[in-house]
Specification:
- Chain A has helices at about 75, 125-130, 150, 155-160, and strands at about 20-25, 30-35, 40-45, 55-65, 65-70, 90-95, 100-105, 105-115, 135-140, 140-145.
- Chain A has about 160 residues and is mainly beta.
- Chain A has a 5-stranded mixed β-sheet, with no helix packed on it. Chain A has a 5-stranded mixed β-sheet with strand order 3-6-7-5-4.
- In chain A, strand 6 and strand 7 form a beta hairpin.
- Chain A is globular.
- With about 675 residues, chain B is of the alpha+beta class.
- Chain B folds into 5 domains: about 5-130, Four Helix Bundle (Hemerythrin (Met), subunit A); about 155-265, 2-Layer Sandwich (Alpha-Beta Plaits); about 300-355; about 355-535, Heat Shock Protein 90 (2-Layer Sandwich), CATH 3.30.565.10; about 540-680, SH3 Domains (SH3 type barrels, Roll).
- Chain B has 20 helices and 23 strands.
- Chain B has a 6-stranded mixed β-sheet with strand order 15-19-20-18-17-16.
- In chain B, a hairpin with a 5-residue loop joins strand 22 (about 645-650) and strand 23 (about 655-660).
- The longest helix of chain B is centred in the first third of the chain and has 26 residues, at about 5-30.
- Chain B is globular and about 90 Å long.
- The termini of chain B are far apart.
- Mean pLDDT of chain B is about 75; it is low at about 125-150, about 240-290 and about 490-500.
- The chains are: A mainly beta (about 160), B alpha+beta (about 675).
- Chains A and B meet through strand 4, strand 5 and strand 7 of A and helix 9, strand 22 and strand 23 of B.
């Protein structure tokens, strides 16, 4: 289990307006989320299934006394889930005052993303997943797709479990 | 010191500090109506708390203070330095009274009354008269206690029943008397036989009291009869002022204090300096002597709690890492560690949790006194006092509940003759109950009084300019007005309620806990206030149930029985209702596998019969995983409310288990039965 210390300054250079992003692979694509939204990265521990929840909700886990939901990134993107491996992690993030976990096959890097160079999302993904994306950016050789965590952990939609 | 008392002092000290800070802030800054309100609320709460504890002098003084602040608040007056100084002196006075209450019992201070008069004089714009204004260090001559001469006096002879029992405590009688008047003199006449004839459960002695009270002789008599059952009591009214003459104690008599351990009123001969000295000594003794509790912020406890949860998980990882190659010493160390960690876990959890009786226990006394003052007959019923609550919640609920119960007695319950005319029993009932349901703690204050007069609420709102003559808001809106600052329908201000401060405090306090309050009322039948607070940390005994490899918890209190399920013998279908025959009674069946979306199994399982509010349901499960204490955790806090579940808990191995909502299961059973019935 590794905890990432949150940077106190997000702008590293004066010339270029950049933000630090946590970068990872889902399927063949590289995605990134703002490091500021990430609280910690944990090894995956089995979650307790929540009856009647959508399939992308793996269940709930104990995060130091708090109950948080874990969402499977692959299922959320319509990909078949992969079995758990050594590299499987849960990225703990906060959106709208709620903390949740995002299960990923692995995390690869922390990158400086130049914000001016972010392009609107091309229709690379299906309509359904389009709303999870904030834009794309080319960093060196890699194309990084920026994720909208608020849409991925869509509390309003999940509230339907209570209905 | 008992826990209730400790809670009172802890709160009192906080309030005194709060008042002081507000005053100092007021003095240095801009006049802000909100800070005056805060000051007023402190005095109001203080008054309520001390009355609930039976500390008459404290509550009397703070009542006076509250009245003074009321003027300030109403007229939006600014605080002159002179007034601020006086109010700070008043805060000091509360401190003094508190300290005395702690060390000597419910005793007053002769300077209270002059100080209040002085404050009122300044507020009313009169020039204070320096002669009538002693400073705190130089009290007025105690030889002239205020209003002593006016009240009638009685000589009471009290001979307890020959055999003492737990119900007959002479000291209780004496302390009861002090609540309704002043015991000027108390003499104990002993008739102790030689040692060989002495019986340990017998009372050899009688009391003779010189008692002063504003209450009717009949009330005094009733009071004595109530407390001193089986005892011999004689009451002689003494009307002439000459009755104050003291009788010199003879050799067989001992003058004892009415209050333990010192005299109820300061002895007239005592000089102010001596009084001050005694107080100082007592203060020193109190701070040195008792091993008291310390106040720790709940944040620190939370941090501790979370850390312990992590240790529990780490421990279980360590335990499961053991294998055949682990040597004996390591094994022993792990086992020992396991035990300690478990105990640590339990103890840290227990720090925060207290049964709600801790709070409820203060109310019977308050209800009794308040009702007596108002000439009403009220009985208090308490339910669910074993419900355990987070200490923070308990503390924060104290003020709201005090206000609600006072209101219920003052405004809700009618006087006995009115009740009789309306065909109700003369004694009104206030029911205070606590329970846990659907992942929340509910506290209900219900009275069978006259209910809320919505028309009067409307008139008052018009008078306050909140609505116009032509507005006819809904009942809910009218009830909402009750919780607005400055609203009160009481026709006169009593020292009980009716200043329009109570309800806005109640709402504010409850909301600050993330809770809510609602009111239901029916004219002539009563009013019900329902407080809902979230369970940030509530503990309960749970029963672990298993289906497939999943683990669920039900509250043990809901479990009636469990037995082997043999499908053919037990189930029956009546118009598609699936019912289980339990000794001739048919109970709706809910299959837990189906409820949580798992496939059915052929294997025979167990039936657990659950009950809530008189309704039962049979739950079909695979097995029972045992009984355990669980800490309830909110699913909503970081996720959403999940239908059918009251919350979640963390098991010893760090895994999460969901807690079934019994009331929802019962509803589900009933609903599906109805749905099947509609189809059939």
């Amino acid at each position: 289990m590794a905890t990432i210390t949150q940077p106190t300054e997000t702008k590293t250079t004066t010339e270029m307006n950049t933000d630090k992003y946590l970068v990872f692979q889902i399927g063949n694509e590289t995605y990134g989320v703002p490091l500021l939204q990430v609280q910690e990265i944990r090894t995956y521990t089995p979650a307790t299934r929540v009856p009647n929840a959508p399939d992308y909700v793996l269940g709930v886990i104990n995060l130091r006394g708090n109950i948080i939901a874990v969402i499977d990134a692959r299922t959320r993107f319509g990909l078949p889930p992969l079995p758990e491996e050594e590299s499987t992690v849960v990225v703990v993030a906060q959106v709208n005052d709620k903390i949740f976990g995002l299960r990923l096959d692995s995390v690869s890097d922390v990158m400086d993303i130049p914000l001016e160079q972010v392009q609107p999302t091309p229709p690379i993904a299906s309509e359904a997943t389009q709303r999870f994306l904030n834009g794309v950016v080319q960093v060196g050789e890699r194309v990084v797709i920026l994720l909208n965590l608020r849409e991925i952990f869509d509390i309003d939609a999940l509230s339907q479990i209570a209905a | 010191m008992d826990s209730l008392m400790q809670l009172f002092y802890d709160e009192a000290n906080e309030m005194v500090e709060g008042m002081e800070q507000v005053l100092l802030a007021l003095e240095s800054g801009e006049p802000n109506p909100e800070t005056v309100n805060a000051l007023f609320r402190y005095a109001h709460s203080f008054k309520g708390n001390s009355a609930a504890m039976g500390f008459t002098h404290l509550s009397k003084f703070t009542h006076g203070l509250e009245s003074a602040m009321e003027v300030l608040r109403k007229e939006q007056r600014t605080l002159t330095p002179e007034l601020a100084t006086l109010l700070l002196q008043a805060v000091d006075m509360i401190r003094t009274l508190l300290e005395r209450t702690r060390t000597e019992g419910d005793v007053g201070d002769p300077t209270c009354e002059p100080l209040l008069q002085q404050i009122n004089a300044v507020i009313n714009g009169e020039t204070p008269q320096p002669t009538a204004v002693p400073s705190a260090s130089a009290p007025a001559t105690p030889a002239e206690p205020p209003a002593v001469q006016s009240a009638p006096q009685y000589r009471i002879t009290y001979q307890p029943a020959p055999t003492l029992s737990a119900e007959h405590d002479p000291l209780q009688l004496l302390s009861e008397l002090r609540d309704y008047g002043q015991v000027l003199e108390c003499r104990f006449r002993e008739q102790i036989p030689p040692l060989e004839q002495l019986k340990t459960d017998a009372c050899y002695g009688s009391w003779e009291l010189l008692y002063e009270t504003a209450f009717e002789p009949a009330i005094v008599r009733a009071l004595l009869e109530l407390v001193a059952e089986g005892a011999e009591v004689r009451i002689e009214p003494l009307n002439a002022p000459s009755s104050t003459e003291t009788v010199q104690p003879t050799a067989t008599e001992t003058v004892v204090a009415a209050s333990q351990p010192s005299v109820a009123t300061p002895a007239p001969t005592e000089t102010p300096a001596a009084t001050a000295a005694t107080a100082a000594v007592n203060t020193a003794a109190a701070s040195k002597g008792e091993a008291q509790s310390i106040r720790v912020s709940t944040e620190k406890i939370d941090a501790l709690m979370n850390l312990v949860s992590e240790i529990v998980i780490a421990q279980s990882m360590l335990s499961s890492a053991q294998n055949a190659n682990t040597d004996e010493r390591t094994r022993a160390a792990i086992t020992q560690m396991e035990r300690h960690v478990r105990e640590l876990h339990e103890r840290v959890m227990a720090i925060r949790l207290l049964p709600v009786s801790y709070l409820f226990n203060r109310f019977p006394r308050m209800v009794r006194d308040t009702a007596a003052k108002l000439g009403k007959k009220v009985s208090l019923e308490i339910e669910g006092e074993e419900t355990e609550l987070d200490r923070t919640l308990l503390e924060a609920l104290s003020d709201p509940l005090t206000h609600l119960i006072r209101n219920a007695i003052d405004h809700g319950i009618e006087p006995p003759d009115e009740r009789r005319q309306n065909g109700k029993p003369e004694t009104g009932t206030i029911k205070l109950s606590a329970y846990q349901s659907e992942g929340r703690i509910y506290i209900e204050v219900r009275d069978d009084g006259r209910g809320i007069n919505t028309e009067r609420v409307r008139q008052k709102a018009i008078q306050l300019g909140w609505i116009t003559e032509n507005d006819h808001p809904s009942e809910e809106t009218l009830y909402d007005f009750l919780f607005q600052p400055g609203f009160s329908t009481a026709q006169q201000v009593s020292d009980l309620s009716g200043r329009g401060v109570g309800m806005d405090v109640v709402k504010r306090n409850v909301e600050s806990l993330g809770g809510s309050i609602s009111v239901q009322s029916k004219r002539g039948e009563g009013t019900r206030f329902l407080l809902r607070v979230p369970l940030t940390l509530a503990i309960m005994d749970g029963l672990g149930l298993t289906v497939a490899d999943e683990h669920y918890i039900v509250p043990l209190t809901a479990v009636v029985e469990a037995f082997q399920y043999e499908s053919l013998q037990h189930t029956a279908l009546f118009d598609q209702y699936e019912m289980v025959n339990v000794r001739g009674e048919f109970i709706p069946l809910v299959r837990l596998r189906q409820f949580v979306g798992l496939p059915e199994t052929d294997q025979d399982g167990l039936i657990v019969v659950l009950e809530q509010e008189g309704e039962q349901i049979a739950l079909l499960i695979d097995g029972i995983a045992g009984q355990q204490q669980v800490v309830l955790k909110s699913l909503e806090e970081n996720f959403v409310r999940v239908h059918g579940f009251a919350g979640a808990t963390i098991l010893g191995d760090g895994r999460v288990a969901l807690i079934l909502d019994v009331s929802d299961l019962i509803r589900r059973g009933r609903q599906s039965a109805e749905r099947y019935a509609a189809v059939a």
